[in-house]
Amino acid sequence: MDTSDTNTIERSLTARQETRSLRIYSFSSYSTAAMVVSFIPLYFLDRGFSEQQIGIIYSTGPFISIFANIILGLASDKFRTIKKLLMLLLFGQLVMISLLIPTQNFALVCLVMMGFYFFQTPINPLSDSLFLLSTPYTGTPYALIRIFGSLGFAVTAYGFGLLLKQLSSQWTLPLVLCTIAVTLCLATRVRDYQGSARKIDFSGFFKLIRQRDVLLFFFIILLISIPHRMYEGFLAVTMRHMGASDSLVGLAWLISALSEIPILYLLGKYGHKFKELPMLMIASIMYALRLWLLSDIQNPYWVLATQAMHSISFGIYFSTALRYLSHLIPDEYRASGQAVYAVVWTGLAGVISGLCGGFIYGHFGRETFYKLGAMLAILAAAGFLSRHLLSRIDRT
What we know:
Blueprint: H1 3-38, H2 40-46, H3 51-79, H4 83-100, H5 106-120, H6 123-138, H7 142-167, H8 172-187, H9 202-208, H10 212-241, H11 246-270, H12 276-294, H13 300-307, H14 310-328, H15 334-364, H16 366-395
């Protein structure tokens, strides 16, 4: 065996090891996300907070995340590191959750949650950048790494739901501390991938995001992000009002997370064969149908059926939106572009859905709340279709 063959084998082994490290990290990282989405709202509800107060908690966090995502995205591009920032963010999460455990005052809870979201919301866009940039080195498509995040979300949502049913919701925050600590340890084992080594011209980036196509894309993303955050933020509360236990809520999130895995796998293999904007339109229509059904369901077990629709709505949307974004924004601005995307997807949408959604849910009821979200999803579908048709006209 000559030297070139030996080097090829070594590179192949290194690529497999790195893919394994990224997948395990993704699994653990989304375990924390499962706790934040599935059980922290129930934790606050069991502590006596109203739906409107929970909405305020979930809007103050995304508000601060707007600044966090921009700051961390620019820092990643300027200092050319993702791994070190991920470790810093995970350590900050540990501190914030530790402070939240003894906190009883509503205003202080909001303040601590703002701090937590500052460290938590940039995690996913930075991780996504890491996964996307790893592909040329590992040969593993983004979707085939992100699948393990879905598995982590699913296993945690159901397994910890069963555990909390036995232990009570007071154990929610200690379990969150455990998932964050494990993720921090795993983050030390991944490689610090980066894009182009050219000098970053940040004025060029800000000029880029002022372009018409980029602005229109982010505006339509906002339209679909609001109903997604409405659904995500209030599903557990809705199910609890229907009489569901923590384990049933966990089962609902398990079904949604598992349902997206085959879609992410298929998109990782064959997604490049399909146009992004029509697929985003299909995902938006499915979001509208999901929300409309949830406005009328009375039995929590029927919610489980709607959760399977997550495969078409979020499963198609998430991977396809990132792929379309990569066409709009060059590699050297990838982390910053991901940050702006996260500002819209998590920050602005979280503020609007938390403040306005919590008010609507508390004063006008569940039916109005979810039907309003369905209408916004239909508007997003129309926006994606219009952009697709206009792009075809421009090409001709």
